[in-house]
Amino acid sequence: MPSLDADAKGTPHFRSLDGLRGVAALMVFLTHAIGALSLPEAARKIIFGSPLAVFLHPLGAVQLFFILSGFVLASSAGRGHHSGDLAQFYVRRVFRIHPPYVFAVLLTWALSFLRFEPGSGLSPWPFGGWLGTQITPPELAKSLLFPGPAYGQLTVGWSLGVEMIYSLLLPLMMLVALRIHWLALLAAAAAGLAISALAGPRAFYLGFGLHFALGIAAWLERERLSAFFRSARPAVGRSLVLVSAVVFSLPVFLHGRAEAVNQILAGLGGTGILIGALYQPGVAAFLSTPPVAFVGRIAYSFYLLHIPLIVQCGRLVGGPPGPLGAAAFVGLVLFVCLAIACLSFEWIERPSIRAGNALCRIVARRMGAAARLSRLDEGTG
């Protein structure tokens, strides 16, 4: 059974999903931290061409974030059926996503003034692009209105745009899944992915509806999935998780595949990993351990801020690093990112959630609904 808590309203909180969110954030971080270094070609082949590359799948990790959000938001959107409940859902999402995003854009923009000449130990790409971006004040002001890449200032911001768009659409997605069937929702999401593949960048956001839909489907089928894992032999559950991990990792090794195929593989594999995190005892126990779950709780700030912090720590890299130097750099940046993410979580995320809760109470009173509040220690979902 999954390790979970319940809030005052009885809505479950799965601790193992905090840990899974943390693992996904670390996958993105490791790819960018290692990619920032100018490594010998032999070392790069060992890292990115070996089974170690399973942990260097940043786009897959972001898609796993979306699946997690679909699952958690399905729970959140299902808390009541009053119009005031829908209004509070949107309040919670805006206050959960937007203020930390604004802080990340402003901090990244401020740090962009601290330019320096990168040494030969740093990779020209992507490090040069990270260091050279500095948007104008008008662009900065526009970028704060809605989550996005902020004209290249906050490169990870594109995923926040996806998150916000599908947060707005999620009640409608839930309606389709409940009134018709979650298979109808998956069919619509698959059509969106096909349109995205044909239309290219103009329909970029349509491709990620599949991942939110898969998360919603997992939420709606949670009781059957729980019953299956309780009745199945332990080896069956472990095999399903292993197969899911392999499918999720295939895009890392199958170069040249169509992006839509990669999204499907990451979506199906990521959903299997999510289910394993919930119902496979060994996986759930590991992800629920305090250190792993802790990284998950601060994963949003960690994810938002890791690139500008990698850039500033790049000042310490002179010539090409050896294995020990590369490991020391990654370890140092990891420590800095975790420390700053902790501060951002306490000073930005939690106050933002409290402000959203305060507004939810006002909305509930005005609309005659029960107050539906966010937990102060929840992750991005």
Description:
Helices cover 72% and strands 2% of the residues. The protein starts with a strand and ends in a 14-residue tail after the last helix. The chain is mainly alpha-helical. A two-stranded antiparallel ribbon has the order 1-2. The protein has one domain (11-367). A hairpin with a 5-residue loop joins β1 and β2. It is built from 16 helices and 2 strands.
Whole-number total of structural domains: 1
Euclidean distance between termini CA atoms = 21 Å
* Strands, count: 2
Beta-strand residue fraction: under 5%
What is the tally of helical segments? 16
Output the radius of gyration: 21 Å
Average pLDDT reading: 90
Structural class: mainly alpha
Question: Topology as H/E string?
Answer: EEHHHHHHHHHHHHHHHH
Share of helical residues: over 70%
Tell me, what's the shape?
globular
